[in-house]
Write a structure and sequence with these properties.
Blueprint lengths: L1 H9 L2 H34 L11 H40 L3 H34 L1 E3 L12 E3 H27 L2 H26 L7 H27 L4 H31 L1
Parallel strand pairs: 1-2
Length: 278
């Protein structure tokens, strides 16, 4: 909800389109989750000393399928509204940036980067915190085999805890760096994106184990997290290359002009009100 209002307020068309795509992703994940629950029902029955046929609760499908359908409907509605807003905001961006194609491309890169930071704040941070509860620390002397899919060796677990604690700080530095065009800050952010990719790669390695014993939903989330982190790294490099090209000065100038126009309108309205009172 906050991302939707934020996208409309900032007229970020890229973010609006991404939110629409996220609704379709949630619907698809609902289908995967339903299939996985069915799988674990059957596997649980097979692990008993006397194999049992555990019937899958039919009410689960009756509750989960309508939820998936509703998400798909909202996804189509959001896609339609995104198209309408894209046309309107496209014109507003043209008035704000002008007809310079290079400036427009740099501004789109800026919008995509900011959008990725906002998504990472929810998804990457949430995924990292979830991994802290999914995995348990392995205190044994010998390294854990990958068959222990719920355990991490102590050094990897502590490494993940440290990375999780720094993700929020990395988001703040990334946002401030792109607003102020701080090259050193963006370099730090790029290095930390690489660290997060390594961390998620380790989690993915210990999550896969044997295919039939794996948690599909967590594996999919880790893969999506690695892709999002890689995209954030790539766009960090893009915005770094755009520093010093005049985009921030142009935006600051437009914001000052817009603020001055608003102040003038306020003064005019006050003068009219005073004349009426006289």
């Amino acid at each position: 909800m906050w991302l939707c209002f934020n996208a409309i307020y900032n007229q970020n068309t890229i973010q609006i389109i991404t939110i629409a795509a996220a609704n379709f992703f949630c619907a698809s994940f609902g289908i995967i989750q339903m299939l996985e629950v069915q799988k674990w029902y059957k596997d649980f029955g097979k692990t008993c000393q006397i194999p049992l046929e555990i019937d899958f609760n039919p009410s689960f499908s009756s509750l989960d399928i309508p939820l998936v359908v509703v998400l798909m409907i909202f996804g189509f509605i959001m896609a339609f509204l995104s198209w309408k807003l894209y046309r309107q905001f496209g014109w507003n961006i043209y008035k704000k940036i002008g007809g310079d194609i290079q400036k427009q491309a740099m501004f789109r890169t800026y919008l995509i980067y900011v959008m990725l930071l906002k998504l990472d704040l929810f998804f990457i941070l949430g995924l990292a915190l979830e991994a802290c509860t999914v995995f348990k620390i392995n205190l044994r002397v010998k390294p854990t085999s990958i068959k222990h899919i719920r355990y991490l060796p102590k050094p990897f677990y502590l490494f993940h805890i440290a990375v999780s604690g720094l993700i929020f700080l990395n988001q703040i530095i990334g946002y401030r760096s792109v607003k102020k065009e701080m090259k050193l800050g963006i370099i730090y952010v790029c290095v930390f994106w690489v660290v997060i990719i390594i961390d998620f790669g380790i989690l993915l390695y210990y999550s896969i184990g044997s295919v039939k014993d794996s948690w599909y939903f967590f594996i999919i989330f880790l893969i999506v997290g690695i892709i999002m982190t890689l995209l954030s790294l790539i766009w960090s490099v893009f915005v770094y290359k755009n520093f010093g090209q005049g985009l921030q000065d142009h935006l600051d100038q437009k914001n000052k002009e817009s603020s001055a126009n608003n102040n003038n309108l306020l003064l005019v309205s006050n003068e009219k009100r005073w004349s009426i009172e006289d």
